[in-house]
Amino acid sequence: MTRPSGKSDAFAGIHRGIHYSLRPNAAPGYWHYAYAIGGMVRSGRVQGRLRLLAVRRVQMRIDRDMRPGRSPGGEAALISHDPRWRRPPGLANAR
Question: Phi, psi at residue 63, to the nearest 5°?
Answer without folding.
Answer: -60, -45
